[in-house]
Amino acid sequence: MTSVLTTALPLPLHSRGKVRDTYRLSDTELLMVSTDRISAFDVVLPTPIPEKGRVLNQLSRSWFRETGGLVRNHLARDQSIPTELLAALPGLDQRSQRVVLAQPVMFECVVRGYLSGSGWKDYRQTGTIAGEPLPAGLEESDRLPQPIFTPATKALTGHDENISRAELASRAGSDVAQTLERLSLSLYRFGAERALDRGLILADTKFEFGWHNGDVILIDEVMTPDSSRFWDAELYRPGGPQPSFDKQYLRDYLEQLGWNKQPPAPPLPQEVVVGTSDRYLEALRRLTGRRQPVTAGV
Description:
Layout: E1 13-16, E2 20-24, E3 29-34, E4 39-40, E5 43-44, H1 52-66, H2 83-88, E6 96-100, E7 103-104, E8 107-114, H3 117-126, E9 128-129, E10 132-133, E11 143-153, H4 165-172, H5 174-197, E12 200-212, E13 215-219, E14 228-232, H6 248-257, H7 270-288
Antiparallel strand pairs: 1-2, 2-3, 3-6, 4-5, 7-12, 8-11, 8-12, 9-10, 12-13, 12-14
């Protein structure tokens, strides 16, 4: 199926992010559409990844359903898509969600269960992650003694900034910070257990929250290959990088190019596009038992 880089629907455009185009359905509801755009190091690449938007949408919907007992999320009760919108973008029902209009909490809530990525770099330099002390002598990809909450600012443009839990409390207020940490750790533990049952390790992930009718709710996406690291549990060997089903394959390719991680991003060769798409589809298959994305509501 044709890749979708941008969408044009007969609705007012609410926002266009790195991956999603969001439209206003009413004063209280939005239509969030997952495209096949992909970003790395906070820069959108010019080359789409086929099926990516469908995978993100399907996985998020699945996780929203599974975690509804832990925290309310942004899914609207009515998930039907108006006929005129389906005509404007075939397959829209497979890559979209009707969501309530929430005010985003401008912090990203990262939970790490394993030592990898920027956490590994931080630990090598300081022996900590975001100011949180860790035991000495840990190796790359080691499981942490317990999952840790490492928040970051949510940048509308440019790069996000990792901050300490104390800094989050100072900026957001202690009550909000405690709520974000509690919900994030609860969601991670739930997701990590479910993923392990399905043969995957959820090494780390990022959650986003918003305010709706005075409550903190889960928004955006949940435990997808865009926002998480998923490793093959059978192949897991600490002491180095792990085979993964997420963006790490793409990041590794870009690191080899010597790109300065500033716009414009380089185009991707076909083998990297196919390799990335295959990894996303494999994550979907393992986590949901589905080989291909399916229509909304299924």
